[in-house]
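Progress report, Aim 2. The chain analyzed during this reporting quarter is listed below.
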Amino acid sequence: MKSLRKFPAIVLPFVLGMGLADVPQPPGPSLPAREIISAWVERPAAPSADPTDLWDVGAWTDAEQLVLERVNRSRANPLAETDILRQLTDPLIQFAYSFFLVDFAVMKADMATYGPQPPLAPHRLLLQSARGHSQWMLANASQSHFEGTIDILDRVLATTYPVAIVGENLYSAAEGPEYAHAGLEVDWGYPGNVTVPTPPGMQEPPGHRINNHDSRFREAGVGVVYGRNSRNVGGFTETVGPELYTINFGARPGATPMVTGVAYFDLDANQQYDVGEGISGVRIEVSDSAYHGITSPAGGYAVPTANGSRTLAFSAPGLATETRILTVSGGNNIKSDLRLNYTPPPVAGTATPAVGQSNGYLPAIVPAAIAYDWSVGRRVSTGGRWTAESGLDRVLVQVTPGYDVRTTTRRATGAYGYRLTTPRPVDQVLTLDGRFIGGASPALAFSMALGFATEYQTISAESSDDGGVTWKVLWRRSGVTGQSDASFSRVVLPMPAYAERDYQVRFRYSVGLGPYYNTVDAGEGAYLDDIELVDSYKLSELSTGRVAAGSPVNFVPAETGEFVLAVRPLVGSRLFPQGPRKVLNAVVGPPVIQLGRPVVLPDGRLELGFTASGGTPGSFVLERTSQVGVAWTAESGATLTTLGAGNFHFRVPIAGDRGLYRIRVP
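Predicted structure tokens for the chain:
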């Protein structure tokens, strides 16, 4: 068994064969609300042909919108929020709970003292001020409410936001929007004047939580920036990053109630908004309001209204207008989300396109889509199982220098296997080279053994359906300090979501905020072998493009054989998951006929010249009808002459004083 040395809660970066990633930092001290009374007249948008003016909430990002959604969830049901936060599965959040010694019984007792509060509406000027301050914190490596002598009130007034009251929460060392919200709502940190983790593990008083639930606030802006920076303060290093969050809360004098919410496709069917789900470009109308809303890039909106019964309508291209009746009372904001199920769009068209001809394929309608990206390719063999026997030619590796991913130390079969380990606390990644297409029942199978690893070291199998922009965890396993698998085990993961759809696969070995094995000694890390993509093909992509919503994809196969076609809808600037691949078997079709100008010959016959291009010409039949709607009949007296390659003419006696002719390929 691998022996480990014990270490204190705050340690040097490395301790005898182990390392410690950065410990979590608490949010800074909260700032009491600032109140001011000022005269205010709302400035409407510039005049337009629209009967109502646009209430512009600004261009929110997904992370900013998610924090606002979580704050509003907390305001709606404080007691339930305690349980939701306690049960979050993010290992970094759970480590922060453990590190600060958070006592959720104490938190729940405090949350019971907060009543439900109306939702906060997004406001573009508070968004502007919040982003500006997050950028200042990054540039100055400082978690502070003050930019020199400039405070929250000065910053918000500078945006021309008419202030009745403002407040602010900050977190300059967050690990994502869910982490930021948990940190501020739990208000984890050091109680009182202590500087080490002490129960109940929350700041006293919990000022960030108090701000989140303050009934005086009616609007908010969330500013997120990304990066790291450090500075020396009195011999100590203060570091900010990787994500910095500022929430600016506010209320305007005499402000009217707002209808607010978010439009989203519930991609993971969890009944709540998540990053990557927002629908932009949806129009929101509220009866008797002088304004309308358009959902932001992240999906959020707000529209001023008044007390009483109000009709709310959501509309967008491809979306049947959805109306609701809302009752606005007490001058309070009210929340109404547009939650839609998402169906990846198939394409409609022939399964046997003709070689050399344009074949149209119409994407299924996706609400609010403005265009569709299309991709045509061929399915080829994956090449069989991935092993390290022939090197790393079929994988892409992103690892810390100092060890060999190809190893002979442990393997399931053969002489070589793959190994990921962590000499530094950064992700070690092995990606299968290529994009793949699932068959009817795709699955990922692999053999693995976990060597010495702590509870904060995790091997995960992940998939992506957007070209590697985002990755979803299919399976994960963490270590147990001092223990190592005695043998390899076979893991089989069905992937029904990728039936007839594109995907990528990678393995990631990561370190959380805790102790980890930091050497490259034999026996440490995760070992992989005999990786297999079951019922899957590799995609050999041939061409891509984009068509406007409502327009077909025109595919012209250059040769016979099998092709696969799929589309992804573009909503605003966001591409949503691709639809199923349609299998096309290109064939040599009939030729394309182009008629020339008819000529009446001196002998009274009619000559009809034409060309036939592409396809396989067989025979041609000249048909005639007396008028549209009357059956066509073959002209038995017509004679066909071949003039040269692809050039022909029919000559036929003229029947009657008028008629329509066509040439048909049987």
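The longest strand covers residues 526-548. The chain is about 15% helix and 40% strand. These observations will guide the mutagenesis work planned for the next reporting period.
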